[in-house]
Amino acid sequence: MELTNSEEFTISPSTPNGTWDVSEKMINLERDGDLPPTSSSIEFGNSSEDELNKNKKVDFVLVYMDDGNLSHAQKREEYQSALRDQGLELYHEQTGFLCFIKIYAPQEVLCRYCEIMKLKMPIKLLTTDALEDKQTDLFDDARSWFINLFRFVQLDPDKFPKKERTLLTEFSRDKDYLFDVGNENFFPTNVRIMIVEFILERQCEGIHRLVNDSGCYSAAYPLHDGTYKQKGTVRALLYEEWGAANKWIKIQPLDTIQEYFGVTYAIYFAWLGFYTYMLIPASIVGLLCFFYGLITLKSNQTAIDACSPWANDVIMCPQCDLYCDYWRLNTTCILTKVTLLFDNETTIIFGAFMSFWAVLYLELWRRRSEELIHRWGLVGWDQGADHPRPQYLKMLSKIKIFKAKEKLNAVTMEKEPHVSFWKVRVPATMLSFTVVIILVLTALAAVFAVVLYRMFLNASSKIFNELDFDNNQYQNFAIPVSAAAMNLVCVLILNYFYDWVAVYLTEMEMPRTQAEFDDSLTLKIYIFQFVNYYASIFYVAFLKGKLVGYPKKYNRIFNFRQEECAPGGCLMELCIQLAIIMVGKQAVYTIIEMVLPVILKWWALFRVHTGLKRKDPNVPRTRWSQDFRLVDWGPRGLYDEYLEMVIQFGFITLFVVAFPLAPLFALANNVLEMRLDATKFLRHYRRPVPRLSPDHTDVGFLNHSLAYFDTKDFPPEYAPQNTTFGNVTVCRYAEYRNPPDHHELPYKRPTLYWKILAWRFIFIVIFQSVVGIFTMIVQWCLSGVPRELRDRTKREAYLTEQIIITREAERAKVRARSVNRFVSSGNQLRRRSTNVSDSINI
């Protein structure tokens, strides 16, 4: 069998926790154009078993292997019989060992369950002018001007026509006159899928349990509406206009995404897009701070002092015991210059701006989300009862002690198996979070190991001497960079391991519903990832160099000196740590998302051509069989996507002052992330079910911040050995302390130190108060729901009432006319009867 480049290869997970494997039936032999146009409501073709009306569409597909298991066959027959009792039409098709059950929902079933699910559907308007905005204001004019200015980012209206505004109300079969039920497009594909999945989950054991429990079914999924290269399909349109990298500057077609993937996925992309757009002003301000530092670098007094001949004469105290030598202050020249690119006069302004930006972003997104919820008809909608997880029921069936225990569900009023809260849930939760604490301590131990690594390199100056590094100029960069890279590797490894452990621990707690499972898993993973990603950054920002002591009396831990910051502070090291962890994490995950599917496809080709995997002689060519090979979403859905962005948000809000370019890197990553996610969802995944300083100048500041130390005061066991500086009598170190010849308190804190510390606290209080006032103003000005949206909602509610009143009045008139005609006909009959009787009597 010869394979060509036009053949499509897809990937499927082999285990529920998301590990990937190449399926045995992996190779898709369908070449583009071989099949007729299809849609997610795909037309049934003629098969050997049934002849179907061409207007009927496949709403859902169930797949199972014909393995001869009688128990499975009996379960399937009972389940499929229950589906038919609900009115669903099921059609069977078998190809080799694979059996496909194609499900179609008739109009009556859709209407019935649309009412049960309380879905809001569009109603027929009395006049097309009812929803038009009659008034415009200055803000509307400014918005129109802004849209015209950036027309190049707008979507093509021919490909993505603007969604017409409609009135939505809960569907009711008693008020069918309000809805255009006769229109074949009244129930869009996403609604059809959602209704069918609702039915599938509430019959017998539920489809998710039947899929996950002992393999009664292999898969259950809705269909894509064709291949991602098939012209005329929504999937191909989204792939070309939304998923393509060259469309990165275009806004997202949220309405089309919502109609194709459902509200849950549309909300995710809406949030990701909004967050990305909000990063633009933060990136611009961060760049301005960086360029200001670059422009003013040559005139910065601290940089001039660090690189002056005076600094060459300043001998600094050793950075470690015994083996470290003295060093000259001018070796920090390059480090000081680079630090001042980020730590300059604009840093405070940038910090205040980012505090304001974070609050503004949250408030604006809340308003935007309210608009989207209203736009997609989700205001006040509740999905209903949350049923037990299939994994929960499966675990109960394996534990005999729980089989006889049942509890009445207060919502569904049905008896469900359950576990004891005190005997099972509490001990399991305590054990689970004990393991979490141990793993968190493991993450902290990894940070401590990296600290020891830096201390070891500081003591091993011979390494740099052998590399012809004549001084510490490059060592000041090499050590933080290598340590941050090592930290990143530890973070990624621990994340991968912990993710698996967290899922196992959460399953052990036996949460009943998917919502309880997600809440418990989220808490575990976020606690760990918060510590794992941020611990080393918190250490550098708040602990490193703060409680070191002085050469005569260093504060030691396990008899080891603590790490010290450079004379200019630890901000540059913090910047390096943040940049490598944040940017490195984003780069690694992006590469994985781009490369992993390609690697698995190449591996599949290699196994086929080398005979490591036998060829499948019965590869079907139907749409449903091709979608069967795509990756299943699993119960976690968009969980990992959200978590990745939340961690990034923490980087650019908690520590952004140390690295003003962080918003720019986040912006670049998110622009790419949107398109990669779109491509991944459209190409590799099945279609998801819709879910809803002293003299007030800085002259002499560097010299002023360095204290003096008399080398004869070194403890003998820690004094430097084999120094190359000759007889050094005085060295300097970064601290505010009295000189050794002070008449009363040598090496003690001077009054100046306490004044500086007090002013730092005063600044923090003032800064926090000013930022807090501004944020409260923002929150007060920006209410949760925009005024225009409130007015529109009230207007739509009023129009809906008017339409219902008008329609009911029309129906009442029709009924009255019918009654009058009936009464009139009855009267006429009585009169005729009377006349006939009179004639007979005469």
TrEMBL record:
Residues 1-21 are annotated as: Disordered. Pfam families: Anoct_dimer (PF16178), Anoctamin (PF04547). The chain crosses the membrane at residues 268-295, 347-365, 430-456, 477-498, 525-543, 587-606, 646-668, 757-782. Residues 54-254 form the Anoctamin dimerisation domain. GO terms for molecular function: chloride channel activity; protein dimerization activity. It is a multi-pass membrane protein. InterPro entries: Anoct_dimer (IPR032394), Anoctamin (IPR007632), Anoctamin_TM (IPR049452). Residues 257-796 form the Anoctamin transmembrane domain. It is found in: Cell membrane; Membrane. Keywords: Cell membrane, Glycoprotein, Membrane, Transmembrane, Transmembrane helix. GO terms for cellular component: plasma membrane. Residues 1-20 have a biased composition (Polar residues). Belongs to the anoctamin family. PANTHER family: ANOCTAMIN. This is Anoctamin.
